[in-house]
Amino acid sequence: MIKVSVILPIYNVAQYLDDTFTSLLNQTLQEIEIIAVNDGSTDNSEEFIKKYAQQDQRIKYYRQNNQGLSGARNTAIQYATGKYVYMMDSDDVLSHTDALQVCYEYAENCQADFIFFDGERSTEKGLYHISNISRTHLIEENKKYSGEYLLNLMLDNNIHNSVVWLLLINHNYLKHLYLTFYPGILHEDELFTTILTLKSHNIYGLRQSLIKHRIRSTSIMGLQFTKRNLNCYLTVIDELFKFQDSPIIRKFAKYTLSKVFYTGHQIPFRDKFPVFWRACKSGYLKYIGLKPALVFWFKKKH
């Protein structure tokens, strides 16, 4: 029986794949499958994937034209057969050789829809430490939580984090939701994880740091903030209101849009008009707030 399916979307990360595959293949949990989707890489990522696939039959390799992170994850999920799904970025490494074992056993003991844990962010240059991604200090282990309670808790403490690589998800729960990643956008985790969370009343936290996430200058999150980032966040909020118009979604919208429009001051002035007009037409100005709106328009980029 496959206990954990590791979803591994790959796009132009050849120089990091040795570390990533080694991290996975050295896990003490042997009953895993690694579903590697080459999402139209133009570097030599494919050579590394094939090399490791020849060494270990637990690696399943698929290739497609570039569809972005959402498309690659959706493809990989279609082929997943494990009891749990773990979505790992292809330039990250697990912090401990027993990370998946610990997660699997904890999720099994709790019979959770999904569990969440902590991690660390680091830059690519020498893996210089930036920050902990820590939320689990707010909860108790072995205690069941509802998604709405947890989302409120994280928003109220200003430490909400939507990334899927801090989750181990029960595959049956995921299939029950018919939930996939919204295609063609950045920040797709914000939409996916929020719905995943709000649909559940059976979530558990594991108070351990288990993943090291690499921030690269050439990655989606490492690039300069642009009009596209803002438009994608607006799409996320659009879709969340289609899912549910409720106090928690309105709180999420305020939390998210106030931050991203504050950051949005750095986009070119000519790009500000269409994205701000879109937000106003959608009725989101009340979620952006006065101060972030003023910063968006008048703060100069350094």
Structural description of this entry:
There is one protein chain. The chain has helices at 14-25, 45-55, 68-79, 99-110, 147-156, 171-177, 188-198, 227-243, 247-263, 269-281, 285-288, 290-298, and strands spanning 4-10, 32-39, 59-64, 84-87, 93-94, 114-123, 129-133, 167-170, 203-215. The chain is of the alpha/beta class. It folds into 2 domains: 4-215, Spore Coat Polysaccharide Biosynthesis Protein SpsA, Chain A; 227-298, no CATH class. Strands 1, 2, 3, 4, 5, 6, 7, 8 and 9 form a 9-stranded mixed sheet that branches. Mean pLDDT is 93; it is low at 126-131.
Draw up the topology in text.
Elements (H helix, E strand, L loop, with lengths): L3 E7 L3 H12 L6 E8 L5 H11 L3 E6 L3 H12 L4 E4 L5 E2 L4 H12 L3 E10 L5 E5 L13 H10 L10 E4 H7 L10 H11 L4 E13 L11 H17 L3 H17 L5 H13 L3 H4 L1 H9 L4
Parallel strand pairs: 1-2, 1-4, 2-3, 6-9
Antiparallel strand pairs: 4-8, 5-9, 6-7, 6-8
Keywords:
302 residues; 9-stranded mixed sheet; 45% helix; 2 domains; 12 helices; alpha/beta; Spore Coat Polysaccharide Biosynthesis Protein SpsA, Chain A
Structure summarized in a few sentences:
This protein is α/β, with parallel strands linked by helices and 302 residues long.
Q: Average pLDDT, to the nearest integer?
A: 93
The CATH class name of the largest domain reads Alpha Beta
The backbone outline, from C-alpha atoms, is globular
Span between termini: 54 Å
Second CATH tier, the architecture of the largest domain: Alpha-Beta Complex
Tell me the CATH topology of the largest domain: Spore Coat Polysaccharide Biosynthesis Protein SpsA, Chain A
